[in-house]
Every structure is written in structure tokens, then in C-alpha cells.
Predict the 3D structure of the following.
Amino acid sequence: MKQNTMVFLSLACTLSLHAASAELGTIDVEAKVDSEAVKDIHGDEIKSSDVAEALFKQSPSVSLVRRSGVANDIIVRGQKKDNINVSIDGAKIYGACPNRMDPPVSHVLTNNIDYIEVYEGPYNVEDFGVLSADVKIHTLKPSKAWHGDVSLNAGSWGYQKGAFSLSGGTDTVRMLLSASSEKSGQYEDGNGHDFAQQQDAYIATHPEAKGMAYKPQYRDMDAYSKHTVMAKLFWDITDNQSMEFGYTQDKSEDVLYPNTPMDADYDKGEIYSLKYTVKNMGRYSDILTLDAYESKVDHPMSNRYRKSTAKPMPDGSKLGVMKHWLTTEMKGVKVKNEWHMGAHALMAGIDVSRRNWDGAYYQNDHPFPKAIHPNFHSIWDAQTDNVALFMTDKITFGKVDLSGGLRYDDTTISTARPPIADNDYNALNGNIFATYHADEHVKYFGGVGVSSRVPDGKELYFHTKGKTGTEVGNRDLDMVVNTEADIGIDAAYDNFTVKAKAFYSDLKDDILYNATTKRYENVDATIWGVELSGSYVATEALYFDYGIAYQRGEKKDPLTGQSDTDLPEIPPLKANIALNYNWDESLMFRIEGIASSKWSDYDADNGEQPLDGYAVMNLKATKVFAKSFELTVGIDNLFDTTYAVSNTYKDLTLITGGDEVMLMNEPGRYVYANLKYSF
């Protein structure tokens, strides 16, 4: 891989020792010691409207799992997948793909986002399955005054995007409508290799993987196209009653996943939401809220663009187009009541949800292998039903703010695959968190919490294709229980802020994939880490924001048949730094650096590889002119570095030649421009 200058890497790592809370943009979000508010998220400067990539650039505690040019995944504090709770305006959406082609954060686009809150740790009892982190995505809200904007975006590798939004209304009724469309060719890494050429480089040393290459007629096809629409209606029924309606749809088509044996034919997500609020109902109800939502994802993936369709079969035929088609649906209702009793701010509620996940294999659009049999289904109507009661309390004693919460979950998981019995899980989770205000500038905080999450349908019931399909799921899995302690300091002065945090997480029955037995299993593990974040205002025009995060994770005992005790997907030291200069009220410059050390601790027994450290620099300038126009131009990865941020844990089905899995490099130098008109 190409190497950046050691001067820049040293500078990035040194300045990062004060770390960033990403307090950017003009949106006012209350600062909290237990969370990070990421506000500059609208995506004018990135290679797609990809929330994962935007979070990776903004927050040192968030790492990226690169799968394609869009729809990538995140890791927070060494945890991903169901160990992270993701909600969009309170609604939960899950991906349908067991190979994480469509993680929850991929079903909302950056141009529709107001801000994102990242809560680290087990301190949310309102939502189901918040094991180690809680990512709350808040989309734009309708305004009373009519206004809108139209934007056009163009960049390297044929990236094109158009978007618009319109919002307005009256004193009682407000609406918002937004839509966007984008597409991109295959990005090139720092070596100048597009997706097909990255495959070529891997196959040159792993010829047994040649069937995974793209067919000649598809080598130059676009990496994806994506279209979205979002509509909202807010209605103030009376002085103390209001209703909010929302609908979001996103659809991606022909999304290429070069280091995976299949690509997504399409991926369609929909979210319907309703919120009803009543205020000041009496002594024991200051705010009563009813939230209801339904989310759906439809995701077929296939090898139609790959040479593997021509693979000869024992009967002399060709393999043909293999399709894995999955759907998932989530329904939820939450009722919560908030009231005050003396010095206590209390909240109590009930949370009910149901998730269904179903998938099956097809060959040339027929059920595989041309007739239904016991292994036609990969995930067979896996259904997760949860009912929970929760309560929180907040109170202040002089300089101390104290909060706590309890949640009791009753969960049943079932499958239509006979003769498997239902799995039942019960859990009592809770936490306590304290903040001590030493003076007007400094706060000390700490907390202890216990949280849990149940296995998902893949971990319990997944089968590979074929008459002798392998049972990858383990129906005997226990739920994961996280017992965690956090401690830190938060200081804010006139010209600088700093937040330092440390945590220790004890995971009982963590769920990991075992590449030796090719099944999931429980194992006890620990993760600990430190984080620093902050900002420094040098002058009225010049300010810095910076951050650093480090985690270390270990299994207490190796998995069955293995010896490696390193936890998978624990990113190494990562630093984010940015210098911002406001020339005047209409012109802003930003120099941004992201750096990481090499992967020295990784789970080799389960497919992970040593990755080199890297440092990249991004440049951005924004100019407002004629009051209504805003032009953003920039360059990402200025030095055209070749590097990878995502490792190759075999929990995902990736292209494999022998025991070595194909890595996917990050984009090389990317030049872009975005023009927005507001009215």
C-alpha cells in the first residue's frame, strides 16, 4: 500500500489526544456527557449519501465496515450488528440481508438527517436490545414557514446526485416532502483499481476464486443507483394534543459487492410511523406519548453478473443464476408517560414489538434446487416477539445529577422450520448514572449498567443452500448480557472543550461465528477502551476539533477447536482531526484528517488479517453567494492513499481463495462539487 507522509500521521495522532465531539453545523443540540451529537451529517462532501461513512468521518469511536460504494455498516466500541440499537425517529428497522448488505443505517440518507445521537454503553431502557450502543437518527422536521432547497452533486467516478426538499404550513398543520436520486460508477482505490480490477488482483494469487469475477459485459457497470422519498405531516390538534405522521422509502438497485459472491438485485426499505402526544393531563401525566411504526425491507441478491453462473454441474448443466431472496418486517408500539413527583422526573412505559425474517434460495428463478425441500429456506419465518416494561428516574442533589432505569423483557423467538421448538428469553436490565458538577466548567460522570440482547434469526436458525445444507445457526444459543462500567470527565471553557471517557464491558455469552465448526456459539468476553474528544477555538475565525478512540477485546476462552482469544472486529487506535477556518460569514474552509494504527490484534482463526495503518487528508470549502446559493467543493483522500479499514471476519460470506479472504480497499482520491439553492 502507498504510504502517506509520517509528518501528517504524527500530527494527526498528536493533536488527537484531545478528541472531538463533532459539535459542527448550526443545529443546537443539548450537550450530554453520555452521548455524542453528530450534526454536520448532510453529506455534501462524501461519495454517496451513506450514513456509515459520514459517521466514520465525524466520530473517532465509529468505525466503518466497507462493503460497497453505498450501504455500509458501522462498528461502535468494537460492537456491531444487533449489539447496536439503531432507530430512525424512534422507529426500528432491520436489514433483510444476513450478509449485512443493507444494515439499518443504510435505510436513511444523509440529506434527510437533522442530527444523530450516539449513546455509548447500556444506558437506554426504553428500547429493545440496546447492548453496547444506541444510535438515534433524527430526520428533518417540518417548519411553519415555507421554504425549500434543490441541490445537485457531482464527483469522481461518475457520481451524480439530485435532491430537493419542501417544507411549510400553518400554525396547526405543517408538512415536509423530500426526494433524491443518485448513482455512481465503481470507485477506484489508490492504485487506480475499480471493483473488477480489485477482484483481478486477488484472483491473480487465488485462481480458485476466478468464478467470483464479473462477466466481461458487466465489468464496467455502475456500482449502484439509489432513490429515496420522505414525507411528514405534523398536526397540532389542540393546545395539548399533537400527531405526527411519517413515511420514508429508499430503493437501491444493482448494488455491486465485489468481495462478496453475490450482488444486490435491489434493496427496498419502507418506514411508516405515527406519534400521538398529549400534554398536561393531570398530576401524574405531564407528557403521554404513543409511538407506532412498521418497517419493511425486501432484498434479493444474486450472482447474475458473475462468471459462477457458468459453473458446470454433475448432470452436465450450468449452475445458472443463484438468488437468495429475503424479507424482514418490524412492527412496534410504545406507550410512555412522563411526570414529576417532588424532585423526581419519572417516566414509565410499555414496549411491544414483533420482527419477522424470512428467506429462501432460488436457481434460475425456481425454488432451489428446482423443487421445494427442507433446505429451500435459509431463514424460515423466524419471528421475534418482545413485550417489555420500563421505568426511569432522574433527580438532582445539589451538584449531583442522578439517573437510573429498569427494564424487564419477555421474548419469544420461533421458526416455521419443523420440528424446532420456540426459544424463550427473560431479562431484567438496569443502570445508574451520575454526573457531578464540580464547578461551572467541569463535570465528572460515571455509570454502571446491565443490558442484554437475544440471538437473531440468522444466529439461531440459518441454513446454507442445497439438499445437504449446513445448519449455521445454533438453536441453543443464550442471550448476550453486558455488564459495563463507564467513567469520565467533561470540561468546557471559553475557548476549548475536552471529554475523556473509559469503559470496561464484561460480555456473558457473547455470540460469535466459529469458522472451524462453521456455526455460531456463545463465549464470555471482555472489551475495554478509552476515548477523548474536544475542540479548541484559536481565534474568532480558526478552530479545531479532534478525537481519538481505542478499544481492546478478548474472549475469556477460545472458541471450540481454536486457540485465538482476540475478539473479531475490534478496530485499532483511530484518530479524527479537523482544522476549520471561517474567512468571513460566507466562506469556510476545512482540512480534515483520519488516521489509524495497524491491526496488531485480530482474530486470525476466524478469517481476520493484519491491516496496515493509514492516514488520509480531506479538503473542503463552502461558499455562500447571492444569499440563496451554496457551493461546496472538495477533495477526499488528497494523497490518493491505498488502504483498507474493514477486516475479513468470516461471519460475513466473502470471496475466499484457500484460507485468505478478499479485502476491499477504500476509495482513492475523490473530487466533488455540490451546488444548493435555498428558497
